[in-house]
Amino acid sequence: MATGRLDGRVALVAGATRGCGRAIAVELARAGAYVYATGRSSRHQGRSEIGRPETIEETGDLIVAAGVRCGSALRVDHLDIGQVEALVDRIRAEHGRLDVLVNDIFGGDRYAEWNKPIWEHDLAGGLRMLEMGVHTHLITLARAMPLVLETGDGLVVEMTDGTHEYNQNYRQLVGPYYDLVKANVERIMKGVTVELAGTDTTCVAVTPGWIRSEAMLEIYKVAEDNWRDAVLAEPSFAITESPAFVARGVAALAADPDRRRFAGQVLTSHGLAVTYGHTDVDGSRPDCWGHMAAGSPEPVDDWR
């Protein structure tokens, strides 16, 4: 892997209980950064409304299992301004710097309703989705950015779902609120990029492909070590990728001294892998978005 070292750097991965956020926290720590990993589900205080069994403390355990002891796994609700302010105060007091901010907070997909127009979609659930996927990002940026800017050559990553080209179209299947969340995340990144003009801080958005998250593996009744068994029933599952794939890309980007060339762009997990020379855990480079843009041709394995 071409990932450089992040020794002496401090990172905050907001939304690191599971999936991509968890993997990014682990990979940033593996590269040498001190990582603050946050989430709501806790083995001590119970699950969040998402209802998943993963906890933020497990993320901390995975950081240690990766062979590094450089991180704090904290229960933080990023809709609570006071909790976010306390988190940033803690980072400032303990390290006096914040080099990398990754906004990966969501969990609102549980409220998505397929094939329903806005007048039929559950309103309360839709508005809650916007809180979880947009308000959390805005609150975290508002309170954490001053420390990033004080630090200097920082990186802000807004995690999204979909390329710029893909998200220019309306997502009919998942409903209006999910579409708004993902459109807003890219728009937030664009706005922050403009506002960062004249600074040394870079803001980008990053999208994985079809992620083999904990929930997705459960849906297809497989585990990471036998995920290809699901391809028999769902051939398109062959284009999926592990959370580590995009996480390795984010870690490589954070260590790149020339990352400002990507400012204001939506980067893909595959594109990052091509740029920095790493692969997914199985040695492949899945190109989910390229495959979709080409019309999802067969064989799917040609796009790995």
Report what the structure shows.
- The protein has a seven-stranded parallel sheet, with helices on both faces.
- It has 304 residues and is an alpha/beta fold.
- The chain has ten helices and seven strands.
- It has helices at residues 19-30, 56-65, 81-95, 123-151, 164-167, 176-195, 214-219, 243-254, 269-276, 288-293; strands spanning 10-14, 34-39, 71-75, 100-103, 155-159, 202-207, 266-268.
- 40% of the residues lie in helices and 11% in strands.
- The relative contact order is 0.14.
Task: Present the secondary structure layout.
Elements: E1 10-14, H1 19-30, E2 34-39, H2 56-65, E3 71-75, H3 81-95, E4 100-103, H4 123-151, E5 155-159, H5 164-167, H6 176-195, E6 202-207, H7 214-219, H8 243-254, E7 266-268, H9 269-276, H10 288-293
Parallel strand pairs: 1-2, 1-4, 2-3, 4-5, 5-6, 6-7
